[in-house]
Amino acid sequence: MVNIKTLIFLLAIVLGYVSVLWLQQKPNKTFSPPEPAVACPVISLEETITPVLGTKHFVVAAYADNRDGRRTRIIGIINRHSGVKLYCVFCCGNRTFFNTTAEVQQHSDHFGFPYVTTDLLCETAPVCKSSHVMVRGPSPSAGNGTRFLPIQNQHQQEDEFPYEFTVCISNLFGNYNNVLQFIQTLEVYKILGIQKVMIYKTNCSQTLDKVLSYYKEEGVVEVIPWPITTILNPSHGWNYAKHKGDLHYYGQLTTLNDCIYRNMYSSKYVLLNDIDEIIAPYKHRDLHQLMEYLSSQNPKAGVFLIENHIYPKNVFDETGRFSQQAEWKNVPGINILEHVHREPDRKEVYNPTKMIVNPRRVEQTSVHSVLRHYGESYRVPPDVSKIIHVRVLLQGQLSKEDLIRDTKLWEYADEVIKKTNEVIKRVIESES
Asked: Is residue 127 packed enough to be buried (19+ CB in 10 Å), middle (13-18) or exposed (0-12)?
């Protein structure tokens, strides 16, 4: 007669066998048993674009993302026409490797370009306390020589953050040299309550590079290297049929998504706008008051859409009030204080938007709206807040008389002039 201990032993074997079969049949989640890890060569956080060996793909950064299960999200740049299966290899705390199949989520906005911003989602095993991960192709040997990405956002919080507002500037490229507007915009940001500006830099002029160093030392700017031109032929525009290239607008969509995840647990809000755009509150003193109001009125919203409004750079204030700043004469760039006329709305045209987001509510973003998010989005009325965008005239047929005079920027003029002069004196004139 079989005793109880024998029955328990046999039952344990059967359950173990069934568990193995279940794991093998589970779709899109192929796990390999842990194997010994000799060492995990690590990529520095300064290295932002890493090739996946044996494939046409690249990875940018890895983030712990436990909002829908225990997963690691790796932001990458994937060739849409290459259907190679990808795997995550975790370097575990007990000095073993843990392999699992990556779920590939290509973002819906690629604008026809061959390469697209992509999320690689990999479930992690509780036994593997990993701080680093790499991505490999179908051949296990394809990972040889590849270094591991540090997994960021391991410590997650929901209420206390080092910063209230962070601005994400997707890229500086084309030897960007609009120095005066850059300085003025940074100083307006500071007045409005921005504490950090994260900039992805491909290249810029020597003068602007010195200005960036000044603001880095001040603790306002963080520069993320973005050497996209060394690995791909990025487009100069957004339309593949017109602009060609491998990837949309210097990888703008990739950097915006990466910036959200980099700041997910360090900033209460993240602003997604270009360097020549200022999200300005029109009924509140600063961004803190604006967001206190908007969040109280829309408690379920995590995405706030702000309308873009054009202030033509070739139309000047007729009074000349801020055009005679001697210190700015030899500084390249636009003086935004001179441009206080904006184009009127067109009833048949839907104004594009940029965003203020709660990064913990965003999963994927595009340029003008989010692609996937938690909760609701809210389009902010332009009389509450709008984007001041000093650029070329969009409605080319308009005369100056057709434009709307809007001197909102003049509210910040005294402080902007004072601070701009300080930066010019310390950074530019000192080098002359």
From this structure: exposed
Q: Which amino acid is at 268?
A: K
Q: What is the pLDDT of residue 4?
A: 52
**Beta strand pairing call for 376-379 and 301-312:** parallel
Neighbours of 332 (CB within 10 A): 15
CB neighbours (10 Å) of residue 352? 13
pLDDT of residue 324: 79
Q: Report the distance separating Cα 334 and Cα 350, nearest Å.
A: 27
For residue 55, give the nearest of 135, 152, 175, 171 by alpha carbon. Answer: 135
Instruction: State residue 19's pLDDT score.
Output: 39
Instruction: Check: CB of residue 282 under 8 Å from CB of residue 292.
Output: no
DSSP string across 201-228: ES-B-HHHHHHHHHHHHHTSEEEEE--G
Nearest residue to 393 via CA among 383, 403, 401: 403
179-192 and 206-218 helices cross at what angle (nearest 10)? Answer: 20
- Please give the pLDDT value at position 32: 56
Contacts of 30 (CB under 8 A, 6+ apart): 87, 99, 100, 101
Q: CA 404 to CA 204: how far, in whole Å? A: 33
226 vs 115, 232, 348, CA distance in Å?
A: 16, 12, 38
- Per DSSP, what are the bridge partners of residue 116? 78
| Angle (deg, nearest 10), helices 179-192 and 413-423 | 130
Is residue 22 exposed (0-12), middle (13-18) or buried (19+ Cβ within 10 Å)?
Answer: exposed
CA dist 379 → 256, 274, 290 (Å): 20, 19, 14
- Rounded Cα distance between 358 and 383, Å, is 22
**Predicted pLDDT at 145:** 63
Low-confidence ranges of the chain (pLDDT < 70): 1-39, 140-145, 431-432
Q: In this predicted structure, what is the pLDDT of residue 347?
A: 83
